[in-house]
Design a protein that fits this description.
There is one protein chain. The chain is an all-alpha fold. It contains eight helices and two strands, in the order ααααααααββ. The protein folds into two domains: 87 residues, no CATH class; 117 residues, no CATH class. Helices cover 58% and strands 2% of the residues. Strands 1-2 form a two-stranded antiparallel ribbon. β1 and β2 form a beta hairpin. The radius of gyration is 21 Å and the shape is globular.
Length: 218
């Protein structure tokens, strides 16, 4: 005879669930990526303060997990995997890798744009959330620049070739006639009241960094 009684929620289950909630609150894009909660127009705090807030939240969860003993095999797996992820994230943060997190494949430079690919666009309300996120992108970009500049000040910098190529990517993404905004705008402007065209973040030619104009070879 099998036991069909549901597994009781354990303290480790609660810690893990609370971490997911905290993570989505601090990094709203995660909720969109994993399909948890309602889509949101909020953008992550990509500034040094935002990174520190995320790191502090992770350290708090590590401290909680280390004080709790697993109740069963499920708990053991949850604790082991979550601690491994959080400790790795802590090591990455302490190594200041976020201060040089810029490359052509997987960095905030791409993540700020890619999340739009996963956002619903079936209704006017959906497009309203897309427009809200577009309007908030400037804050995400500004925070990201602040973090990279903190890296420059600390001597923690990405490879120059990555900077040059990401600058080219950014100009393509911000081009109102390019693939991203042209497609997004044509669809979204079916509801003219949304005015998605007012939310575009421009990347003007000749944008400067500390080392001079980006996107030019020397």
């Amino acid at each position: 005879m099998t036991n069909d009684a549901p597994r009781p929620t354990t303290p480790i289950d609660t810690i893990a669930e609370e971490w997911v909630t905290t993570l989505i609150d601090l990094v709203p894009e995660v909720g969109i990526y994993i399909g948890v909660g309602e889509p949101t127009g909020r953008v992550s705090d990509t500034s040094p303060a935002g990174h520190e807030a995320l790191a502090a939240a992770g350290r708090a969860v590590i401290a909680k997990l280390e004080k709790v003993e697993p109740a069963d095999d499920v708990d053991r797996v949850t604790k082991t995997d979550l601690l491994a992820d959080l400790n790795l994230a802590r090591e990455v943060h302490e190594a200041n890798l976020h201060l040089r997190d810029l490359n052509v494949i997987a960095s905030p430079a791409q993540e700020l744009r890619e999340v739009f690919d996963l956002m619903p666009t079936a209704t006017a309300d959906d497009w309203g959330i897309v427009a809200e996120r577009l309007g908030n992108i400037r804050g995400g970009v500004d925070g990201y620049i602040e973090t990279l500049r903190a890296g420059i000040a600390a001597g923690v910098v990405p490879a120059r070739r990555q900077v040059v190529e990401v600058a080219i990517q950014a100009r393509k993404h911000a081009d109102p006639l390019g693939f991203f905004f042209a497609g997004l705008g044509l669809a979204g402007l079916r509801s003219p009241s949304l005015r998605l065209d007012h939310c575009v973040v421009r990347v003007p030619r000749g944008t400067h960094t500390r080392g001079g104009p980006i996107g030019r070879g020397r």
